[in-house]
Write a structure and sequence with these properties.
209 residues, alpha/beta, 2 domains, 7 helices, elongated, structural constituent of ribosome, rRNA binding, Ribosomal_uL4-like, Large ribosomal subunit protein uL4
């Protein structure tokens, strides 16, 4: 499929880019997307949660009162989970939430996410660009030219560009990544996806294998 290429002022350049049907026009696989997003979010978890068990509580081990004859339930020491300040039963312990997925499944998920953006008319292709200075107003002007101001926007560059990255850093709903960093979650989390001619080529080379 052909998509018109725009410049950073939002005007058509007259050029068109051919998007691969095998990457931007497949039958989306929702389950692959679910697994890939689940893995991404799981990998973000620190897993440092911790609750003290009764053997880790600081306190006396003295038996509180005699075993029988009180009319109440028997009790051991003050560190019992039954008392305020006691240890917690089966509380959270530090753990690693990450898990692995097959490479082909992750590629299928990314292709499916990109296909959804094309179907929703949420994908725009710009000619390759760079900023001379890392000024926020340059990136704001770009978003305004595309009518994306106030919209969650993901800009994908073919390679790292420090000025473009820094210019976007203070904009809450904008994110800049390189093509090799692109993941399914970021694509779906953005309302608008902005690719450059260079990043289209990089993605097609990476996902066409």
């Amino acid at each position: 499929m052909e998509v018109k290429v725009l410049d950073i002022s939002g005007k058509e350049t007259g050029a068109k880019v051919q998007l691969s049907e095998g990457i931007f026009g497949i039958e989306p696989n929702d389950h692959a997307i679910y697994l890939d997003v689940k893995q991404y979010l799981a990998n973000q978890r620190q897993g440092t949660h911790k609750a003290k068990q009764r053997n880790e509580i600081a306190g006396s081990t003295r038996k509180l009162y005699k075993q029988k004859g009180t009319g109440g339930a028997r009790a051991g020491n003050i560190k019992s989970p039954l008392f305020n300040g006691g240890g917690r039963v089966f509380g959270p312990q530090p753990r690693d939430y990450s898990f692995k997925l097959n490479k082909k499944l992750k590629e299928l998920a990314r292709k499916s996410a990109l296909t959804y953006k094309v179907k929703d008319n949420s994908l725009v292709v710009l000619e390759d660009f760079a900023f001379d200075t890392p000024k926020t107003k340059n990136f704001v002007s770009l978003l305004n030219a595309l009518n994306f101001e106030g919209t969650k926007t993901l800009v994908v560059l073919p390679e790292g560009n420090k000025n473009v990255y820094l210019a976007s850093k203070n904009i809450q709903k904008a994110k800049v990544v390189t093509a090799d960093e692109l993941n399914t979650y970021d694509v779906l989390n953005a309302v608008k996806l902005v690719l450059t001619t260079g990043s289209v080529k990089t993605l097609e080379e990476a996902l066409a294998k």
